Amino acid sequence: MALPAAWLNPPPALDETRIASGRARQLDLTKPPGSLGRLEDVAVALCAQQGTDRPAVDRVQISIFAADHGVCEEGISAFPQAVTAQMIANFAHQGAAISVLARHLDATLEVVNLGTVVPVPKLPGVLDRVIAPATANFAQQPAMTAEQVSRALQAGDEAAARACAAGMQLFIGGDMGIGNTTSAAALACALLHEQPHHLAGPGTGLDAKGVAHKAEVIARALDRHGADREPLAVLASLGGFEIAALTGAIMGAASRRIPVLVDGFIVSVAALVAVHQQPQVRHWLHFAHRSGEPGHGRVLEALAAEPLLDLGMRLGEGSGAAVAVPLLRQACQLHNEMASFSEAGVSNAL
Predict the structure, then answer these.
(1) Series of mean pLDDT values for 10-residue runs along the chain (350 residues)
(2) Where are the domains of the chain?
(3) Annotated catalytic, 317?
(4) Is the pTM of this model over 0.90?
(5) The dihedral formed by the CA atoms of 264, 227, 232 and 156, expressed in degrees to the nearest 10
C-alpha cells in the first residue's frame, strides 16, 4: 500500500496576510495590547490556519484510534490487553470520559479500530480498519511490516479526509491501546536520542519497579533497532498501529488546512514523528495540555510547544484536548465579537 500524499509532501503554508490582519485587529480591540495573553496568539494562529479574519472552532471532529501492542508480552502494563477492546465498547456506548466531553462540546466522535487481541464486534460509531490483532513485540522484532505501517498511516489520513468533507474546523486525535506509553516512549527516545529512564513513565499505573522494567524493555528495543532515525523506519520498528494512524491523521489534517489540537503524551509523540517527516506540520498544531506522564515535557520541548493547560491529566482518549476546546472557542469569540476602540468610542493609547 502506498504512503499517503501528506507523508510525502509538506502541508500548505499559513496565510501570512491573515497573521498581519489578525494582529492588527487584536491591537484595535478595546483592551491593552497583549492583555488577553495567549488567547490572542491562538486567535491569530487560527486566522492564518483557516484563512479568515473571523476564525471559529464550532465544528470539531474527535477521532480515537485504538489498537493493541505486542510488547505487552514483556509485562510492561498494569492492565490486561482485554481492556483495549472493552474500552472501544465503552466509547461506543457513550460511557468514557471522551464520550461525555464530546457530547457536551457537540463534537463528532468516531472510533477507529486498528486491531485488538480480543475481537471487537460491530458497534455504533466504531470503524473497522483492523490491520492485525496487535503489533509484533518490538523488543524482539519490528512492530510493523512496511505494509502495516502504510495501512495505519492511511487509516489516519482517511479520518482527516472525513473531517475535511464534513467541513470540520478543528481536528482532535485520541488514543486507546494498552501498552502504548511504552511504544510512545520508545519512539521519542529514538527520535530525540534520549535515554529510556528519562522518558518511561507509569502509564496505566506502574510502580517504580515496573517503570524501571519498562525502561529496560525500551532500551533493548532501541539496541535492536540500531542507529536509523528516519521517521518511517522508526515508526515501523517501534510504533503502534494507533500511533501511526495518529501521525497520518495529524499530517492529513494539516495537508487539508484543518488545525489540529494535540492531546497528551501519545498524540504528542505522533506529532513528533509527523514534524520530523514534514517540519511545516508544526505550524498547524495547537497543544492542549501538559500530561502527567513524565516523558511529555521532553516531547513538548522538542516541538517548541507551550500547552494551554496543566491539569495533571494522563487519561488519553483525546480527553485533555477536549477539555481545552472551550478555550479555543473563547479566543475566537473574543477576537470576533469585541468592539474596536473606534466602535466603542474609547480612547486608545497614544
Answers:
(1) 95 97 97 97 98 98 98 94 97 98 98 98 97 98 98 98 98 98 98 96 90 96 95 98 98 98 98 98 98 95 98 96 98 97 81
(2) 13-54+335-344, 60-329
(3) yes
(4) yes
(5) -20
